[in-house]
Amino acid sequence: MFKAILIEKDDQGYRAGLTELDDSALPEGDVTVRVAYSTLNYKDGLAITGRSPVVRKFPMVPGVDLVGTVEHSSHPDYQVGDAVVLNGWGVGETHWGGLAQRARLKGDWLVPLPAAFTPWQAMAIATAGYTAMLCVMALERHGVTPAQGEVVVTGAAGGVGSFAVSLLAKLGYSVAAVTGRPQEADYLKGLGATTVLDRAEFTAPGKPLAKERWAGAVDTVGSHTLANVCAQMKYRGTVAACGLAGGMDFPSTVAPFILRGVTLAGVDSVMCPRPDRLQAWQRLATDLEVSHLDAITRTIGLAEALDVAPQLLAGQVRGRVVVDVNA
Q1: pTM of the prediction?
Q2: What is the secondary structure of 175-227 as a DSSP string?
Q3: Model confidence over 179-196: pLDDT tens digits?
Q4: CATH number, domain at 318?
Q5: Residues 143 and 170 reside in one and the same domain
C-alpha cells in the first residue's frame, strides 16, 4: 500500500483527496520508482482544484515532477537503486504522477538525478527551474547577450520567474523583475534583479509598438502582459514565452515582429526532447546559484498539497513548493 493524492470524476462530481492505494493499481510502465519528493506546480494546482480541464483521464494521481529511487526496472537504462528525476511527459494529466509514494513510468521519460543535486534540491528546481533554463537557452540561441541590455522577467515571484531571475543574474544579465506583489521586491533583488516593476504597467491593453526597452524577455504570464512586452522589445530582441498565468490569449499585432524583427520563441517543457532536457539539467548544475534554493522553496507534506493548491492559483505562493510525499 502507498499514500497518494487521487483525483476522481464521476456522478458525484470532481474531487481530490488523500488515499491509500495498492501497488496493483499503478498504471503500466517499465520502471517503478519509490518517490522521495514531488512538487506543486501551477498545472498541479489546476488539476487538484479542477479549475481547468488539465486532467484527461480518471482516476488520476497529479504531480508533474518527481524524484526517487528505482525499485523495479525492465528498461535497459535503469537498474534497481538508481536515482531518477521526471518532469512532464503528460504525467499528472494522462498518466499517474508524482504526488504519491510510488510511481510506475516509462523509462524513456526519466533522466538520472544529476550528481550535483540532492533529491530535495532536484525537486526545489524541478519543472520550474528546468523550464527557466530552457528559456535562458532560447535567449542565448537567438543571440541575446548581457551587453545588449536588460532582460525582463514577468511573473517573477513565481516558480519559473524566480529561477529565471536567478539564472540570468548569475550569467551577467541585468534583470528587470515584474511582479504584482510589491512586498517581494527584496526577495527578487536577493535573487539578482536590478529593477522591480509593478505588473500594472503591463496588464492593460497597450500600443502595437512602445519605446524600446528590453533586449530579451522571459514571459510566464501571456495575455496583455506578453503583448506589452513584445511591443517594448529592442530591435531583434527575443521573448521566450512559457506560461499563461494571466491568460491564454495574445492580444498583439504583427508590428513588433515585422518592424523590429522581434522573435517570439515558444518554450515547452512537457514534451521537450531528451537531449535538450539533459542539456538543461547540465546547465543548471553549473549556472544555478544553489544557495538561492532555500529562499525560493518551501517544503510541505503530501496532505498539505490539497490546501496549498488554491493558494498557488490565487498568486499567494512565492517561488517553489516541494512536497515530501512521505511526510
Answers
A1: 0.92
A2: EEEEES-GGGHHHHHHHT-SEEEETHHHHS---SS----EEEEEESS-HHHHH
A3: 999 999 999 999 999 999
A4: 3.90.180.10
A5: yes
